Amino acid sequence: MSSSEDDLPVAGTAVILRDGADGVEALLLRRPDRGSFAGAWVFPGGMIEPGDRRPGADEREDARRAAVRETGEEVGLEIGRMVPLSCWVPPPGIPKRVRTWFFLAADPGGEIHASPEEVVETRWCAPAAALAARDDGRLTLMPPTWRTLDELREATDVEDALTRRADPPVFRTRFQRTETGTIFYWDGDELAGAGGGARERLVAEDPPWRLERS
What we know:
Helix content is 21%, strand content 31%. By secondary structure, the chain is α+β, with helices and mostly antiparallel strands. Strands 1, 2, 3, 4, 5, 6, 7 and 8 form an eight-stranded mixed sheet that branches. A four-stranded antiparallel sheet has the order 9-10-11-12, with no helix packed on it. It has two domains: 170 residues, Nucleoside Triphosphate Pyrophosphohydrolase, CATH 3.90.79.10; 42 residues, no CATH class. A hairpin with a 3-residue loop joins β9 and β10. It contains five helices and twelve strands. The longest helix has 17 residues.
């Protein structure tokens, strides 16, 4: 991490998966129409609190504990095994910047009890279905959620998703406005200085958003 990134607050997010009739499904929840991610569909998670920290532990472990705690508070599920998936660093210049670790976890089973203060509704959704719902206006997704769902389309089942992980990448997000939307791009993109026509970007324009990689 750069020195400016080191100063950011940190959060943990749990990407909870289950095997559905048509393949892998992820648990999504809709935030209230206020505060951070107002009205957006996201994964459970939140900021590291003092009780999540342990002496000598690295930030990723503290973020994992935050993701476990927040999942219990927001939807009443007690998740166990968690696999690091990715780390997201938001663009410079936005009002509230939080570095967020994403973790994969299997559905522990049990009934979902949504916190009325933090969750408007929940749903289990196949990644491809969630992306299609965003494109036709039924869901609002943030770029990290969109890209995570896009990647999960490749998983054959939950165990495949949990065991195919390599070292979790760090996505340092930047963006560029266009006439019809926004391009979000990362370190491997020519807009970030990679050169050679390289692409590592989400073209967030309507109709459908698309990921370009080369």
